[in-house]
Amino acid sequence: MERAATALEADTLVLAVGGKPGEAFEPSAWESWFFVAPLAKAGRLDEAIAGMTADMDEHGNHPGFLYNLACYEALAGRNDDAIEHVARAIEIDDWFRDRARDDEDFVSLRGDARFSAVLERPST
């Protein structure tokens, strides 16, 4: 995802919440999700997934990013990818384990032994 802005008036300031003075702003992993969430809500899951996978190099180690990608993949019937990404999210941050157990986005995975194994795997 790329963003650009052009100031229309001289002396325009840019406010980047979370930005560090003197450094270029680095978008958080949530930027990807905010961009694609309306697509997913509209049922355009393939586009939402494509938007997130385009940002994998930059945010592929962020557990929230991976978890949301897994949700979209599960809803789209891409169970192999969904299991891989939710497993990685849980590996990075065990907080997502309990969330995944009850998340309605993963209904299609509940009968899959691989998903059950991910949820039952001991914390690292």
What can you tell me about this protein's structure?
This protein has 124 residues and is an all-alpha fold. The chain has one domain (29-120): Serine Threonine Protein Phosphatase 5, Tetratricopeptide repeat, CATH 1.25.40. It is 56% helix and 0% strand. It has helices spanning 29-41, 45-53, 56-59, 63-75, 79-92, 95-102, 113-120. The longest helix is centred in the C-terminal third of the chain and has 14 residues, at 79-92. The protein is elongated, with a radius of gyration of 17 Å. The model has no long low-confidence stretch (mean pLDDT 89).
Write a brief caption for the model.
With 124 residues, this protein is mostly helical.
CATH architecture: Alpha Horseshoe
**Shape by Cα distribution:** elongated
What is the class in the CATH system?
A: Mainly Alpha
Low-confidence stretches: none
Q: What would you call the structural class?
A: mainly alpha
Give the beta-strand count.
0
Can you tell me the CATH topology? Serine Threonine Protein Phosphatase 5, Tetratricopeptide repeat
Number of structural units classed as domains: 1
Terminal Cα span: 32 Å
Taking the sheet with the most strands, its summary is:
none
The number of helical segments is 7
Q: Key terms for this structure?
A:
single chain; about 120 residues; mainly alpha; Serine Threonine Protein Phosphatase 5, Tetratricopeptide repeat
Write the layout of secondary structure elements.
Elements: H1 29-41, H2 45-53, H3 56-59, H4 63-75, H5 79-92, H6 95-102, H7 113-120
